[in-house]
Task: inverse folding
């Protein structure tokens, strides 16, 4: 079947209104209940995933005590590195994943794209080179890079720590408050709490997330809407479409790289937007977000929790062909491009390449459907792989 541009646009709107909209509505209703019951008077929605969350929340419950605030893993971690005493301590705040590329490591240390290329050339290592995170402490070549650039790393980290502290003070991020984000492993809350402790800032955080399965030891409380440590029933059902949830919620601006002072105000420094110049992708995002807000505005919203959370989970678990078409050109740029669905047929893959690409895909079931192109219980294959 041929999918025209008009058909894809219609399907993007349908994805927003019939699938994302109910989920977004259920999530912000749950948020409001948690905030009221726990007497939270400061709620910070974190960029970029908090974009649709605060938009829907303010429409339903007003603007009181809510703020959209610019944080990212990199902007928070950068303020922690100057206190690290050696290489082993310096890799403590890396995202906990199995493999990490040299590009990701250098970005973590605060190097821009041109600097990364220069370092890659100087040491004769491609930026795509990957390392097992659990063995990274013994990688002498990475240690040598850190040792040779320690002064630059710490100087930049200290400067950003001063900016970050001022940014927290400017936005009154202190005391008892909630942070609202997509979640998954709790890294943002962990980095924020670590920075506050380093700086002597009193902070008692309630983290409210789409789903949370923490692998970081946080001091505050964490709660998840779709899944949490006390209820994992929906965890795999959500995570098989992990990249989809992130893309549905996100704003159309770049990630926060750091902070600077302009006219006596601290403002975020944003990275370039990964879809800049990709008109069709930006339009697709706008359409499904418009569709979601159409559902939020409607008078015919369901109050049944299973009807609110079910459609988007089923979409991720059992991808329809029109969903594959929507996401075929989308990617997540995180060191290297992570695809949603396959960009070529099965017969063009070598086995190692196939395993690696599937492993890096942010929509596992969608990727499998895109290469097999037949109805099959892809979610149950994914669930078996995750055991």
Result:
């Amino acid at each position: 079947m041929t999918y025209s541009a008009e058909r894809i646009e219609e399907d993007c709107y349908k994805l927003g209104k019939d699938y994302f909209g109910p989920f977004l509505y259920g999530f912000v209703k749950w948020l409001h209940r948690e905030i009221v019951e726990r007497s939270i008077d400061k709620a910070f929605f974190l960029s970029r995933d908090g974009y649709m969350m605060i938009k829907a929340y303010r429409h339903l419950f007003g603007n009181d005590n809510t703020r959209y605030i610019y944080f990212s893993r990199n902007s928070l971690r950068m303020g922690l590195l100057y206190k690290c005493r050696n290489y082993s301590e310096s890799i403590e705040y890396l995202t906990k994943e199995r493999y990490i590329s040299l590009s990701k490591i250098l970005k973590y240390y605060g190097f821009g794209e041109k600097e990364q290329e220069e370092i890659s050339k100087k040491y004769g290592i491609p930026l795509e080179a990957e390392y097992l995170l659990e063995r990274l402490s013994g990688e002498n070549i990475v240690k040598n890079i850190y040792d040779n650039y320690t002064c630059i790393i710490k100087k930049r980290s200290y400067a950003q720590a001063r900016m970050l502290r001022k940014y927290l003070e400017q936005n009154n991020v202190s005391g008892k408050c909630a942070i609202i984000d997509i979640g998954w492993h709790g890294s943002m809350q962990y980095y924020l709490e670590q920075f506050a402790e380093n700086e002597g800032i009193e902070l008692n955080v309630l983290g409210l997330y789409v789903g949370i399965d923490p692998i970081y030891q946080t001091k505050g409380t964490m709660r998840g809407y779709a899944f949490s440590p006390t209820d994992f029933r929906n965890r795999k059902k959500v995570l098989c479409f992990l990249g989809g949830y992130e893309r549905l919620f996100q704003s159309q601006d770049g990630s926060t790289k750091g902070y600077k002072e302009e006219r006596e105000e601290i403002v975020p420094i944003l990275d370039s937007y990964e879809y800049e110049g990709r008109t069709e992708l930006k339009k697709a995002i706008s359409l499904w977000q418009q569709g979601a807000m159409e559902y939020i505005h409607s008078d015919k919203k369901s109050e049944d929790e299973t009807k609110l959370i079910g459609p988007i989970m089923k979409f991720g678990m059992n991808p329809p062909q029109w969903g594959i078409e929507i996401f075929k050109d989308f990617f997540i740029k995180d060191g290297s491009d992570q695809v949603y669905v396959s960009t070529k047929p099965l017969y063009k893959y070598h086995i190692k390449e196939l395993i690696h690409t599937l492993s890096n895909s942010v929509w596992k079931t969608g990727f499998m459907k895109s290469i097999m192109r037949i109805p099959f219980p892809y979610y149950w294959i994914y669930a078996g792989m995750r055991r």
